[in-house]
Amino acid sequence: MSxxxxxxxxxxxxxxxxxxxxxxxxxxxxxxGQSIELVRNGSRGLLWLEPMxxxxxxxxxxxxxxxxxxxVASLFDAGFLAGKPHALALGPTEAxxxxxxxxxxxxxxxGITDPLSLEDYQAHxxxxxxxxxxxxTPADIVQQVLDSGLRGRGGAGFPAGIKWKTVMQASxxxxxxxxxxxxxxxxxFADRMVMEGDPYMLIEGMAIAxxxxxxxxxxxxxxxxxxxxxxxxxxxVRRATAAGFLGKNVLGSGKAFDITIRKAAGAYVCGEETALxxxxxxxxxxxxxxxxxxxxxxxxxxxxxxxxxxxxxxxPFILCRGPKAYADYGMxxxxxxxxxxxxxxxxxxxxxxxxxxxxxxxxxEDFGGGTESGRPVRAVQIGGPLGAYLPDALLxxxxxxxxxxxxGGVLGHGGIVVFDDTVDMAEQARYAMxxxxxxxxxxxxxxxxxxxxxxEVIERMKATPAEAVPQGKLLRxxxxxxxxxxxxxxxGMTPYPVLSALDHFPEDFNLAAETHKAA
Amino acid sequence: xxxxxxxxxxxxxxxxxxFRDEQGALLPLLHAVQDTxxxxxxxxxxxxxxxxxxxxxxxxxxITYYHHFRQTEPxxxxxxxxxxxxxxxxxxxxxxEKAEALLGxxxxxxxxxxxxxxxxxxxxxxxASGPAMELDGKLYARITPERLESLIRKKELS
Lengths: 519, 158
Description:
The structure holds two protein chains of two kinds. By secondary structure, chain A is of the alpha/beta class. Chain A folds into four domains: 3-100, 3-Layer(aba) Sandwich (Glutaredoxin), CATH 3.40.30; 118-327, Rossmann fold (3-Layer(aba) Sandwich); 330-420, Ubiquitin-like (UB roll) (Roll), CATH 3.10.20.600; 425-509, NADH-ubiquinone oxidoreductase 51kDa subunit, iron-sulphur binding domain (de novo design (two linked rop proteins)), CATH 1.20.1440. Helix content of chain A is 40%, strand content 15%. Chain A has a five-stranded mixed β-sheet with strand order 2-1-3-4-5, with helices on one face. In chain A, strands 13-12-16-14-15 form a five-stranded mixed β-sheet. By secondary structure, chain B is α+β, with helices and mostly antiparallel strands. Chain B is built from seven helices and five strands; from the N terminus they run ααααβααββββα. In chain B, a hairpin with a 2-residue loop joins strand 4 (133-135) and strand 5. Chain B is elongated and about 50 Å long.
């Protein structure tokens, strides 16, 4: 009888040798006359254990990891095909606390199915949301998304249903669905994991959005740093089209929906929605002034829904299980779950999907297992390069858009980057300004020039302690100009990491703890 | 202006055939040219501009705006080291110094013999298993200085 073996094809597994492990397993099996069925699944998200190999034993999956090509022979010797013990054995996958303690709605299938298998997808509720949507009126679909409380997962947290409603009500000969898959924030990889691990979920979410607002064409704008995500999505669109889930006649409904995959070209600011639209139109990715909103004047001047990958990926669940099933999770105005990404100096980095309301400390300690270096946590950056650095004292804040904002933080795309006590926070602040200088589109002055001046000011504070107080005042003044005077979040939020570093770690800037606020 | 080589002209023509009728397809076209040649010849700008009914300035603007596009031939080997926060928290700064010493060129530069170029990259999406890098198109994570050195040596011998 052939044994089913899973070796992930997620980039995070490939980058630590998953292909070589898969090859070694095939060779060992052949040389031992063992019949195996190799499935290249998505990642379960326990990234410190990658490549994590799973074997199906008696209908249950048993995990081993991190597996190296060299350890494969010993795994066969130990009888891992029968789930036998080995130094790398982790036990039944579903029983691993890291997975068991999550609330996986969006990531329910990721790591379990073969990402490109339409049969596998449908055997796990795939396209049930689209079928449900086809029986509804556009207004009813929008109402379900509104009722679910789903907010944009790209960082701004704008209610998705309101955006959809605006596009639905706009009249135009052509409307578009655009997926923002320009996941450039350091510390985030959930979009990549969805595209590589469950691409049909995103396709299904897009098709439902198309039905809701009357759009017949969708674009997925994927960063060029994600070549694997690009190729999986392209193949998934080909297969879904051939099978009638996309195309001129979606599931025989008479409704059309097509998807084009577009590769970005390395400009961080194209993650800003209007810059992204410019880029899709074949131009430099320069931010547009709003209004008009993209919902009314978007791609090629037409009404456009532009949503993050995780926003659209949440939609099939909402349509399939109902808006209440989704809204039952979460706290306050943050409904549902967020796939958190634990990154940086952590023992157990990975993907943790939890309802809003979990604290950073729970994520870092209970899931993340503390720092990999074993040193104390000093600062945690939440929400990417434009997110604030939080000190240990603020880590009990619940992960909720409003609660975090009240503490001067931003949830962003749910990326959490942990630093130990060796970090120089003035250097992190300087880097935030440098990154802004490198990536600024150049359209508005506070961002284009302020970022370079900001770097210089921080360098002066570090180099000349006697200058730290007046330069610190200048830095706050500059940050205020950037916060209030920039066109988009690039210049407008670069002050978040800078000011939070200054507020919570003044000693790194040669400022005395008690005088910095007055400075 | 110099003219393109036959190979360059062919790559541009093939890409134009594929994308000239697709709306807003300047980026896919440039990707196709660069995927074939490794760069976008400067001399291609007028040809592309005229096919897309754009000014040369607009096409030049797009090529030079995006970090990914380049107008010069790449070095034989390209090493891109992630410089973003999550990799900083896992030691990418000292790893970068190590790479600079091993290759004899600074970040953002190439070696005198153009065998190597060392580029910064801002996030490869491998943030839980940094430091991460891309070497000749292949991703690597959890890179130690020893591993970096052995990977570079292996390429040197190839």
